[in-house]
Amino acid sequence: MIRLAKYDDFYQIKIMLKDIHGMHAKAEPNYYKNVEEVIPENVYKDEVDKNHIFVYEVNNSISGYVMFNDIIINNHPIIKNQKILMIDDIFVKDTERGKGIGRQIFNYIEKHAKENNYTNIDLNVWSFNINAYKFYKSMGMRDTRTRMSKEIQ
Protein backbone atom coordinates (compact mmCIF):
# COMPACT_ATOMS: atom_id res chain seq x y z
CA MET A 1 0.00 0.00 0.00
CA ILE A 2 1.24 3.48 -0.85
CA ARG A 3 0.24 6.26 1.50
CA LEU A 4 1.34 9.64 2.81
CA ALA A 5 4.12 9.45 5.35
CA LYS A 6 3.32 10.04 9.02
CA TYR A 7 5.44 11.35 11.88
CA ASP A 8 5.65 7.79 13.24
CA ASP A 9 7.45 6.67 10.07
CA PHE A 10 10.50 8.80 10.87
CA TYR A 11 12.73 6.07 12.27
CA GLN A 12 12.11 3.64 9.40
CA ILE A 13 12.70 6.35 6.79
CA LYS A 14 15.72 7.67 8.68
CA ILE A 15 17.40 4.25 8.29
CA MET A 16 16.70 4.22 4.56
CA LEU A 17 17.95 7.79 4.15
CA LYS A 18 21.17 6.83 5.93
CA ASP A 19 21.54 3.87 3.56
CA ILE A 20 21.09 5.95 0.41
CA HIS A 21 23.33 8.71 1.78
CA GLY A 22 26.04 6.18 2.60
CA MET A 23 25.97 4.92 -0.98
CA HIS A 24 26.40 8.49 -2.25
CA ALA A 25 29.11 9.35 0.29
CA LYS A 26 31.09 6.26 -0.71
CA ALA A 27 30.80 7.00 -4.43
CA GLU A 28 31.35 10.77 -4.12
CA PRO A 29 33.54 11.30 -1.02
CA ASN A 30 34.70 14.71 -2.23
CA TYR A 31 31.11 15.91 -2.27
CA TYR A 32 29.28 14.16 0.57
CA LYS A 33 30.17 14.00 4.26
CA ASN A 34 29.89 10.80 6.26
CA VAL A 35 27.26 11.74 8.83
CA GLU A 36 25.23 9.85 11.39
CA GLU A 37 22.08 11.94 11.01
CA VAL A 38 20.99 12.56 7.43
CA ILE A 39 17.73 14.34 8.23
CA PRO A 40 16.77 15.98 11.52
CA GLU A 41 13.35 15.00 12.81
CA ASN A 42 12.01 18.56 12.57
CA VAL A 43 12.94 18.74 8.86
CA TYR A 44 11.27 15.37 8.27
CA LYS A 45 8.11 16.58 10.04
CA ASP A 46 8.05 19.72 7.86
CA GLU A 47 8.08 17.51 4.74
CA VAL A 48 5.31 15.33 6.19
CA ASP A 49 3.26 18.46 6.91
CA LYS A 50 3.69 19.53 3.27
CA ASN A 51 2.55 16.05 2.08
CA HIS A 52 5.90 15.62 0.30
CA ILE A 53 6.65 12.03 1.29
CA PHE A 54 4.85 8.87 0.21
CA VAL A 55 5.75 5.44 1.59
CA TYR A 56 5.25 1.90 0.37
CA GLU A 57 4.13 -0.14 3.37
CA VAL A 58 3.35 -3.82 3.91
CA ASN A 59 2.44 -5.20 7.35
CA ASN A 60 3.50 -2.01 9.16
CA SER A 61 6.94 -2.16 7.54
CA ILE A 62 8.05 0.49 5.07
CA SER A 63 9.82 -1.02 2.07
CA GLY A 64 10.36 2.20 0.13
CA TYR A 65 9.51 5.86 -0.16
CA VAL A 66 9.60 8.89 -2.41
CA MET A 67 10.41 12.37 -1.14
CA PHE A 68 9.88 15.44 -3.33
CA ASN A 69 9.58 19.21 -3.46
CA ASP A 70 7.70 21.71 -5.57
CA ILE A 71 9.43 24.08 -7.93
CA ILE A 72 7.17 26.83 -9.24
CA ILE A 73 8.28 29.03 -12.11
CA ASN A 74 5.99 31.95 -12.93
CA ASN A 75 6.55 34.99 -15.11
CA HIS A 76 10.19 34.20 -15.82
CA PRO A 77 11.54 36.23 -18.75
CA ILE A 78 12.79 33.20 -20.74
CA ILE A 79 11.29 30.07 -19.10
CA LYS A 80 7.67 29.01 -19.50
CA ASN A 81 5.46 28.84 -16.42
CA GLN A 82 5.88 25.46 -14.77
CA LYS A 83 4.90 23.53 -11.69
CA ILE A 84 7.61 20.90 -11.27
CA LEU A 85 7.47 17.92 -8.95
CA MET A 86 11.17 17.59 -8.08
CA ILE A 87 12.00 14.15 -6.72
CA ASP A 88 14.69 14.25 -4.05
CA ASP A 89 14.77 10.52 -3.38
CA ILE A 90 13.11 7.34 -4.48
CA PHE A 91 14.34 4.44 -2.41
CA VAL A 92 13.49 0.76 -2.08
CA LYS A 93 15.20 -1.47 0.49
CA ASP A 94 17.79 -3.84 -0.97
CA THR A 95 15.80 -6.85 0.21
CA GLU A 96 12.69 -5.61 -1.62
CA ARG A 97 14.25 -4.65 -4.96
CA GLY A 98 13.18 -6.44 -8.11
CA LYS A 99 9.59 -6.84 -6.88
CA GLY A 100 8.12 -3.87 -8.76
CA ILE A 101 7.91 -1.61 -5.70
CA GLY A 102 9.94 1.17 -7.32
CA ARG A 103 7.66 1.08 -10.36
CA GLN A 104 4.57 1.26 -8.15
CA ILE A 105 6.02 4.23 -6.24
CA PHE A 106 6.96 6.02 -9.46
CA ASN A 107 3.55 5.38 -11.03
CA TYR A 108 1.90 6.67 -7.85
CA ILE A 109 3.93 9.88 -7.84
CA GLU A 110 3.17 10.36 -11.55
CA LYS A 111 -0.56 9.99 -10.83
CA HIS A 112 -0.19 12.47 -7.96
CA ALA A 113 1.54 14.90 -10.33
CA LYS A 114 -1.27 14.64 -12.90
CA GLU A 115 -4.00 15.08 -10.28
CA ASN A 116 -2.27 18.16 -8.86
CA ASN A 117 -1.56 19.92 -12.15
CA TYR A 118 2.21 19.57 -12.25
CA THR A 119 3.72 20.20 -15.67
CA ASN A 120 6.52 17.66 -15.25
CA ILE A 121 8.54 15.47 -12.90
CA ASP A 122 12.25 16.20 -12.57
CA LEU A 123 15.05 14.54 -10.64
CA ASN A 124 18.82 14.35 -10.49
CA VAL A 125 20.71 11.08 -10.75
CA TRP A 126 24.43 10.68 -10.11
CA SER A 127 26.45 9.19 -12.96
CA PHE A 128 27.73 6.37 -10.72
CA ASN A 129 24.16 5.20 -10.05
CA ILE A 130 23.67 3.23 -13.26
CA ASN A 131 20.81 1.10 -11.92
CA ALA A 132 18.82 4.18 -10.91
CA TYR A 133 19.49 5.80 -14.29
CA LYS A 134 18.24 2.71 -16.13
CA PHE A 135 15.17 2.56 -13.88
CA TYR A 136 14.28 6.21 -14.53
CA LYS A 137 14.72 5.74 -18.28
CA SER A 138 12.44 2.69 -18.15
CA MET A 139 9.82 4.85 -16.43
CA GLY A 140 9.81 7.32 -19.33
CA MET A 141 12.23 9.91 -17.96
CA ARG A 142 14.53 11.54 -20.50
CA ASP A 143 17.90 13.25 -20.26
CA THR A 144 17.41 17.01 -20.25
CA ARG A 145 20.73 18.37 -18.99
CA THR A 146 24.12 17.26 -17.77
CA ARG A 147 25.86 18.74 -14.76
CA MET A 148 29.62 18.38 -14.79
CA SER A 149 32.20 18.94 -12.08
CA LYS A 150 35.94 19.37 -11.80
CA GLU A 151 37.61 19.35 -8.41
CA ILE A 152 40.09 22.19 -7.90
CA GLN A 153 43.21 21.06 -6.08
Commentary on this structure:
With 153 residues, this protein is α+β, with helices and mostly antiparallel strands. The protein is 33% helix and 24% strand. It has four helices and five strands. It has a five-stranded mixed β-sheet with strand order 1-2-3-4-5.
Question: What layout of secondary structure does this protein have?
Answer:
Blueprint: E1 2-4, H1 10-27, H2 41-49, E2 53-58, E3 61-73, E4 82-92, H3 101-115, E5 120-123, H4 130-138
Anisotropy-based shape: globular
Count the strands? 5
The helix count comes to: 4
User: What is the overall pLDDT average?
Assistant: 95
Rg, alpha carbons: 16 Å
The structure class reads alpha+beta
The percent range for strand residues is 15-25%
Low-confidence stretches are: none
What summary fits the major beta sheet? 5 strands, mixed
Order of helices and strands: EHHEEEHEH
**What fraction, in percent, of the residue positions are helical?**
25-40%
Distance between the termini: 48 Å
Strand order of the largest sheet: 1-2-3-4-5
